[in-house]
Design a protein that fits this description.
By secondary structure, the chain is an alpha+beta fold. It contains five helices and eleven strands, in the order E-E-E-H-E-E-H-E-H-E-E-H-E-E-H-E. The strands form three sheets. Strands 2-3-6-4-5 form a five-stranded antiparallel β-sheet, sandwiched between helices. A four-stranded antiparallel β-sheet has the order 9-10-8-11. Helix 2 packs parallel to helix 3.
Length: 203
């Protein structure tokens, strides 16, 4: 059985780290797409317009397959990757962490930078509120009116909620169920002769 849960932020978090006059301000917040992440990063750049660096990392989707990090002018591997590693360490997704740096005039060196970006990012994630979500599969059902009672009986027994129902010439509705239950429930509907079931998306 696959694990069908993931963690994400339900409230944002902030972190602050100071070292030799440099100030690292971290913000962790929820995003559901790359476009959302880019817009949020742009907002932070606007807010801290006089800062030298805005380094970031984001992770999107229950499968954690979509991620990116940026050093934004810092030496390669000293900022974006440490931030991304904190996201991985916290085991969260649908999240973007931006660490803004105000330079204090003294260079911190490679290990100093890695520690600063890592610490600021970790503090922001520690201060955020994290919740557990289930990975759900969304299906569509199409069937004729004579099958209505049998379909509704399964919906009730499995405690499924109707979504986007359309009862016209034929019947159409959608439902979602957590991934671990999806195949078993889908099979119940497939076993009803005359019911067409199709997978729409994973959420």
């Amino acid at each position: 059985m696959t694990d069908d849960t993931y963690q994400m932020l339900s409230a944002p978090g902030e972190g602050l780290y100071k070292e030799k006059g440099s100030k690292f301000i971290a913000s962790a917040f929820t995003v559901f797409s790359e476009d959302e992440a880019k817009r949020a990063i742009a907002e932070i750049k606007k807010e801290y317009y006089d800062a030298r660096h805005h380094c970031f990392a984001y992770m999107i989707g229950p499968e954690k397959a979509n991620f990116r990090s940026s050093d934004d002018g810092e030496p390669s591997g000293t900022a974006g990757k440490p931030i991304l590693n904190q996201i991985l360490s916290k085991d969260v997704t649908n999240v973007c962490v931006v660490v803004t740096r105000y330079f204090g005039g003294i260079k911190l060196g490679t290990s100093g930078l890695i520690n600063a970006y890592k610490t600021a990012a970790r503090e922001a994630l520690d201060n955020a509120v994290i919740v557990e979500k289930t990975i759900d599969e969304v299906f569509a059902l199409e069937f004729g009116y004579p099958l209505m009672n049998e379909v509704m009986r399964i919906m009730k027994e499995e405690n499924l909620e109707q979504m986007n129902p359309r009862f016209e010439m034929d019947c159409y509705l959608e439902f979602s169920t957590r991934r671990n239950e999806a195949e078993r429930i889908a099979t119940r509907f497939r076993n009803l002769f005359g019911v067409k079931i199709s997978h729409i998306k994973t959420i």
